[in-house]
Each structure stands twice: as structure tokens, then as C-alpha cells.
């Protein structure tokens, strides 16, 4: 049914029908997210979660179709960091650097094992996410907000009012650096593990940025020195089981609005990367962490390293737990400008992007929402 102009409501840069806006507000005001819908025992998902393009490869049994490559034949690289973190042998380090360079140029994704973070910390972090989301609703609601200035932000769908369709997930986000959160700003049920996990990820991130710098032919501290490790934000996702997974997505196709993401995923799977126009499963590997290049690294490397689109399928099994740690200061960034690194440019390879601040980039990304387009294209010259 066509809606007349009088029934249209502008929300930011998006125009919604008054009916859809009321539906979105009603969902938002429950403050219980997607899990709240599941707890009611619904058998049909609300139309707000229906995605326009069908994903025939996203049925309940996850059978592979012609537009999805099986991970048995194609998969992202798995890189062992043990020799780099524990051994100073320059030959072994160079081998790891070469593998990382190839992964960043061709995939934009790789997994790391023997990364130095104990398995017990990884498991405790996943348990912490579950504890928070599954606690009593009235306690959890106290943290529900869309105020980006808060240190701890719990809600469902950050782009609730701007995306074409909602994703089947709930999320809490925590700023861990550059400003250390005060303990009282964090929920008691996951406070200690959030801080411990954040410290471990920061240590690993610094090591990864050294390897990425070397992979670009720069001195090992280059990316750290220009501020790539200054900010750290953890996004903790909870994907409930879905009664109609073929109609929706856990996370819409997107690339990340940061420098680098380090992702912890559980055993359920569902993460896919778009490689050579095919969706490739990223199978969970016990104890491994997924590393992917963000838009800001593609921008500063002038397309040498690729920020690749990825998505998460909805599933009738759940909940799926993941923790995405973003090396990025988000809306709390300074006025520092980032553009293509001068050392990587030449007459034959001129700058492909204009300079921007992290704050401007993230603000544009957030306003646009997960609409299936790349924010990076907006910054090309």
C-alpha cells in the first residue's frame, strides 16, 4: 500500500512511514531486544526483520548453494603467531609477515592461533556476554541506551531507525581505550572479564599492528605511532535462535568502520566473507581469533590492504555469541586527519582517498547504517 506524504516521517537522513516508525519505537521501548521477542515464543519473525533480497543459501540446514563456496575448498588463512610472539628468529618473523601481507591483500581476513591469550579468558569472555544478555530484564534495562557518549551501551540494532531491515541480534558495546572505563560504569556480571579481555586484546593488537606495518614495508611502530592502537571498543553480540532464519540476517553485509577488528566467535558459526563475488564460510577454529582489515586501514594504505564485506547468517540454533574488538576511537576520536600514507604513494600510485578524521568517518557510517553499501566509497577522490 502506498503511503501518502502526510504519513511520512523524517528521522535523520531517512524517511519512514509513520506506521514503521511506530513499530520501531515500540520494539525499541521494550528494551529487551531480539531476545525479548524469542522469550515470548514467537513462531513468525516481525516484518521489520525481513530482508528484501532472499538468501537461498541461508536456510535452516545451511546447505550450500551455487553462490556459496564450501569452506572445504576455500577458506581464509590460519596464521600461527607462536614463532613471532615467543621467538625472535627474524627468518620466521619474515615468513609470518609475508603470510599476513598476502592475506591482507587478497582476503582482508585471516585467523590467528597461538596468539598468547589463554583459552580460559576467551571462554570467560563469551560467558560474560551470555550472563549480561540473559540476566533479569529489569536489571539489563538500566543499561539500555542509544547515547554514544556512554562508556557502556546496550541496545538492539545501532542503526534501528536508518537501516532498511533490522538484524537478528542484540549488542552491548564498551569503550576500553583511550580512556579506561571506571568499574562502576560497567555491569557487575561482566565487569572483570571485559577489563581483562580488553587488556589482552590491546597487547595482541599492538603486536598485530607491528606485523602489519612491516608487511607494508614500514618500520614496525609506524601504525602504532600514527594512532591506530589508541582506541579500543568491544562490541559483544548475542544472536538468538531464529524461527525463520531464511527471511533475515544476523548482520547485514558490511565492511568495518575502523582500523582493524579482532573477533572472538563461538562454535556455532555463520560468519561469511565476500571473496571473488562468492560468500565463503569462516569456520570457527577452537582457540583462534579472526582478524580483519577495516575501512580506515584500506584508506591509509591506498587500497593495498582490503577491507572486505562480510555478514552473519541467522540460524535456528542459538544463541550465537561473538565479541568484535574494534581498534578505533569511534566518536571519541581527536581531530587528527588520516589519509593515504605518503610513503606508499608514487606518481603511478596517487592518493585515492581524501583525508578524514575517525570521528567523521564513524559518524557517516553510523548515519548511513548497514544498508548494504560501502561507506569507504564516500571518501574516494
From TrEMBL:
Gene3D superfamilies: B-lactam Antibiotic, Isopenicillin N Synthase, Chain. Pfam families: 2OG-FeII_Oxy, DIOX_N. It comes from the Eukaryota. InterPro entries: DIOX_N, IPNS-like_FE2OG_OXY, IPNS-like_sf, Oxoglu/Fe-dep_dioxygenase_dom. Residues 228-329 form the Fe2OG dioxygenase domain. Signal peptide: none annotated. Keywords: Iron, Metal-binding, Oxidoreductase. Belongs to the iron/ascorbate-dependent oxidoreductase family. This is Fe2OG dioxygenase domain-containing protein. The lineage of its organism: Eukaryota, Viridiplantae, Streptophyta, Embryophyta, Tracheophyta.
Amino acid at each position: 500500500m502506498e503511503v501518502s506524504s502526510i504519513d511520512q516521517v523524517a528521522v535523520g537522513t531517512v524517511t519512514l512511514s509513520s506506521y514503521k516508525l511506530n513499530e520501531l519505537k515500540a520494539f525499541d521501548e521494550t528494551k529487551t531486544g531480539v531476545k525479548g521477542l524469542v522469550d515470548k515464543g514467537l513462531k513468525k519473525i516481525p516484518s521489520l526483520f525481513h530482508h528484501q533480497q532472499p538468501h537461498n543459501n541461508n536456510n535452516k540446514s545451511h546447505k550450500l548453494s551455487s553462490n556459496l563456496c564450501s569452506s572445504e575448498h576455500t577458506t581464509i588463512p590460519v596464521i600461527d603467531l607462536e614463532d613471532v610472539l615467543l621467538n625472535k628468529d627474524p627468518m620466521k618473523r619474515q615468513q609470518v609477515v609475508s603470510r599476513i601481507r598476502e592475506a591482507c591483500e587478497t582476503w582482508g581476513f585471516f585467523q590467528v592461533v597461538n596468539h598468547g591469550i589463554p583459552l580460559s579468558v576467551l571462554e570467560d569472555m563469551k560467558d560474560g556476554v551470555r550472563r549480561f544478555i540473559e540476566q533479569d530484564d529489569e536489571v539489563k534495562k538500566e543499561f539500555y541506551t542509544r547515547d554514544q557518549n556512554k562508556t557502556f551501551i546496550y541496545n538492539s540494532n545501532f542503526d534501528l531507525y536508518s537501516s532498511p531491515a533490522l538484524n537478528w541480534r542484540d549488542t552491548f558495546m564498551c569503550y576500553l581505550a583511550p580512556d579506561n572505563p571506571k568499574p562502576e560504569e560497567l555491569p557487575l556480571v561482566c565487569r572483570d572479564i571485559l577489563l581483562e579481555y580488553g587488556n589482552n586484546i590491546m597487547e595482541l593488537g599492538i603486536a598485530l599492528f607491528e606485523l602489519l606495518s612491516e608487511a607494508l614495508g614500514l618500520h614496525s611502530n609506524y601504525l602504532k605511532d600514527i594512532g591506530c592502537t589508541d582506541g579500543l571498543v568491544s562490541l559483544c553480540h548475542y544472536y538468538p535462535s531464529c524461527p525463520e532464519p531464511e527471511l533475515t540476517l544476523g548482520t547485514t553485509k558490511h565492511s568495518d568502520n575502523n582500523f582493524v577488528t579482532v573477533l572472538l566467535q563461538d562454535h556455532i558459526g555463520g560468519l561469511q566473507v565476500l571473496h571473488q563475488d562468492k560468500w565463503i564460510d569462516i569456520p570457527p577454529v577452537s582457540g583462534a581469533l579472526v582478524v580483519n582489515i577495516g575501512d580506515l586501514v584500506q584508506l591509509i594504505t591506498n587500497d593495498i590492504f582490503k577491507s572486505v564485506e562480510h555478514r552473519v547468517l541467522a540460524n535456528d540454533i542459538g544463541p550465537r555469541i561473538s565479541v568484535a574488538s574494534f581498534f578505533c576511537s569511534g566518536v571519541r576520536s581527536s581531530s587528527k586527519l588520516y589519509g593515504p600514507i605518503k610513503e606508499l604513494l608514487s606518481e603511478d600510485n596517487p592518493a585515492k582517498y581524501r583525508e578524514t578524521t575517525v570521528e567523521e568517518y564513524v559518524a557517516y557510517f553510523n548515519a548511513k547504517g548497514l544498508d548494504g553499501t560501502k561507506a569507504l566509497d564516500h571518501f574516494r577522490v
